[in-house]
Amino acid sequence: MSEPLAILRVGMCCSVGLDAAQTASSIRAGVTRKSESWILDWDSEPVILGHLADRHLPPLVPSLAKRARTSAIEPRLLRLAGAPLAEVLSAEFAKLALPVHLALPEPLDAQPFVSMLGEQAQRRIDVGASRVFTAGHAGFFSALAAARDELITPGRAEFVVVGGVDTYVDAERVAALERAGRLRTSGPQDAFTPGEAAAFVVVANEATRRRHNLSALAWITSVGVSGGGELATLCSAVLDGALAPDHPIRLVMAGLNGESKSAKQWGVARIRNQEHFARPLRVEHPAEYTGDSGAALAPMMLGTAALWIRAGTVGGPALVWASADSGDHGALVLYAPA
């Protein structure tokens, strides 16, 4: 990555927090919130999900309530993402029309969905310049890489909102997991607890940050996405050259969800890149507390790490990674402000 990106704002919502500060604090404290849902498994038992109670989600705004749906989960995605988007576009960003690069769980028409998201959040969005990425857990890293290209190209965007929203509160998605043997129920299993979340960051380059006299929460110094291959190889590419010799990685936000495949990939990546990791190394996997929130997991991990680093809760630099079901991987390096 030729130029670092400043994280200027964070907005988040998940089962353990209704805003960014609450989410980051709850994950730091190890607060777990997984509970029975209205969805039943094959044994007619309630499925455990890391989900928000309906009373904690704002209703759809009147202009959206009666619109035809292109997806069964579209209304819940909008309800999940509205408040975090409004949070990240507060203060000096509240009146700007910014592009949104958004990771989603399934293909949706980008412009209509982003337009509706702006209505739900009551914020202006540059719909024409917005994009949607549907690469599962790796989608956010693709969105961030695309935002980086926008920000370093003269005459393009000054700020970009990058984020993700996803939910497994859907009977068909849960049934698909159960058919594949991936739904955690009871007993030893190579499976995971599904969840839901929405998370966003506002990013800019250094010149823009200085021009607008804004403070950075943290800096993204390297980001990468691989179309298959090994997580270890991607981590090597992201870490090599991104770290000073006396600044090893001290925090890892890992996209581990309880399945053995990602655990094995991470084990190999850690061993092959051990020279880049501090001892002791703090490894966090927020899906343990919130359930696996799919396309929203990576931005939630990034937002949490940025707030921890800003508050001095943990020292940087940090590595954030996640792997998609397709075999794609994403990773980035995060530094504390100088």
UniProtKB/TrEMBL annotation:
SUPFAM superfamilies: Thiolase-like. Gene3D superfamilies: 3.40.47.10. Pfam families: ketoacyl-synt. It comes from the Bacteria. Residues 136-198 form the Beta-ketoacyl synthase-like N-terminal domain. InterPro entries: Ketoacyl_synth_N, Thiolase-like. One of its GO terms (molecular function) is acyltransferase activity. This is 3-oxoacyl-(Acyl carrier protein) synthase.
